[in-house]
Specification:
The chain is mainly alpha-helical and about 375 residues long. The chain folds into 3 domains: about 100 residues; about 140 residues, no CATH class; about 100 residues. The protein contains 11 helices and 5 strands; from the N terminus they run H-H-H-E-E-E-H-H-H-E-H-H-E-H-H-H. Helix 1 packs antiparallel against helix 2 and helix 5 packs across helix 7. The longest helix is centred in the first third of the chain and has 98 residues. The protein is flat. The N and C termini lie far apart (about 135 Å).
Length: about 375
């Protein structure tokens, strides 16, 4: 491309110079015709030169364009393939993203519905717990679950079984040794529910303060009932069961002396966690009591079995001695038969009118084995006690 351009520029300069010269010659009258002829020839040559240059430039451009096109194709081809693969991958990712987004949107919608349902049910539960009867029944159910979890159902009596002098505790736990522990689950926590629904911090603190004050008042009422005087024998305290740990934590946050005050009034504050620990400890004492009782029973049965074994051994020994005497009598009878009867029978066998051998009767050489018990003589006197 550069060489052809240079030739074109050179030809242009030459033609310009020729035109200048022809114009100068044309000023001369005597050279006008010849200048015009030369100018026409040069114009024709210029046109021919331009056509040649154009043809050469187009051919060179085609050749260079083909080579450049091949090089560009060799370079751009893999790039085009990579871009195509990238587009396919992006399309697949977009499709996967759309599906995942649709699934995520469905899950979010399900969680939203579940959250609304949970909110509705929580509101219904809070509304129900505001009723004293429902709140008391819920505390009793929590108490029953704790008793079942501790494995103390056999050793606990619920309110349907324990009523004394108008007082009806929710639970009576029987201890090993005949004692019992009284448990009451009637705890007010309406103020706590108000605090849980309140968003204003100051109003929430006021509700929590009221909750602690209500719990302290209930401790006084429970202590005044003096359950330890109505149920005897029982320790001089009563267990106040709170159906949830947050109820006690909220009260202690406001009134830190509440536990000490309850102890001073012979009231033990217990949550499900602490009550399970207490009942499991009591269950352990029951297991120890059962082991001790079983050990005493085993000892008594062992003594009876040992005495009866002695009686049975005396009977067996006496039976063995009697069998020995029977064997001795049998052998004496065999000896008598041998000397008294069989001798005559053999003489008869020697005669011609008697055939057949006279059978021999063998004596018994085995004697009964004695029972080897050292206390046979000691228990032989109890042979008539029964076996």
């Amino acid at each position: 491309m550069t060489a052809f351009t240079f030739l074109g520029i050179t030809a242009a300069f030459a033609i310009g110079a020729a035109l200048g010269w022809l114009l100068h010659a044309a000023r001369s009258s005597d050279r006008a015709a010849r200048a015009e002829a030369s100018l026409a020839a040069m114009r024709a040559n210029e046109q021919l030169l331009r056509q040649s240059l154009t043809a050469v430039s187009e051919d060179s451009a085609r050749r260079h364009s083909g080579a450049i096109g091949d090089q560009v194709t060799a370079i751009v081809g893999p790039l085009r393939e990579a871009v195509g693969a990238l587009n396919e991958h992006v399309a697949h990712i977009e499709s996967t993203r759309a599906q995942a987004y649709a699934g995520l949107r469905e899950q979010v919608a399900g969680m939203h519905r579940a959250s609304q349902l949970l909110t509705t049910q929580t509101g219904q539960l809070v509304t129900a717990l505001r009723a004293p009867q429902i709140r008391g029944r819920w505390g009793e159910i929590q108490l029953e679950r704790v008793v079942e979890l501790a494995g103390m159902v056999r050793h606990c009596d619920f309110d349907t079984q324990v009523t004394r002098a108008g007082a009806r505790p929710d639970l009576l736990v029987r201890l090993a040794g005949g004692k019992q522990i009284v448990v009451d689950a009637k705890v007010p926590f309406a103020a706590y529910l108000d605090a849980a629904q309140e968003e204003d911090p100051r109003q929430r603190d006021a509700y929590l303060t009221r909750h602690a004050r209500q719990l302290r008042t209930h401790i006084d009422q429970l202590a005044d009932k003096a359950y330890w005087e109505l149920f005897d024998p029982t320790p001089e305290f009563v267990v106040l069961f709170l159906p949830g740990d947050p109820f006690l934590d909220a009260a202690l946050t406001t009134d830190s002396d509440l536990l000490e005050y309850a102890f001073s009034r012979n009231v033990i504050l217990a949550t499900p966690t602490t009550l399970v620990a207490l009942l499991r400890t009591i269950a352990h004492t029951w297991r120890q009591e059962a082991l001790s009782r079983d050990a005493a029973t085993i000892q008594q049965l062992g003594r009876e079995l040992y005495g009866r074994i002695g009686v049975a051994g005396a009977h067996l020994d006496r039976l063995g001695r009697q069998l020995g005497k029977a064997v001795e009598s049998f052998n004496q009878t065999v000896a008598s038969m041998e000397t008294r009867v069989l001798v005559t029978a053999r003489k008869l066998n020697d005669l011609e009118h008697y055939e057949g051998e006279v059978p021999e009767v063998a004596q018994v050489d085995t004697w009964p084995r004695a029972v080897g018990m050292s206390n046979i003589s000691a228990v032989s006197g109890h042979a008539n006690d029964g076996f």
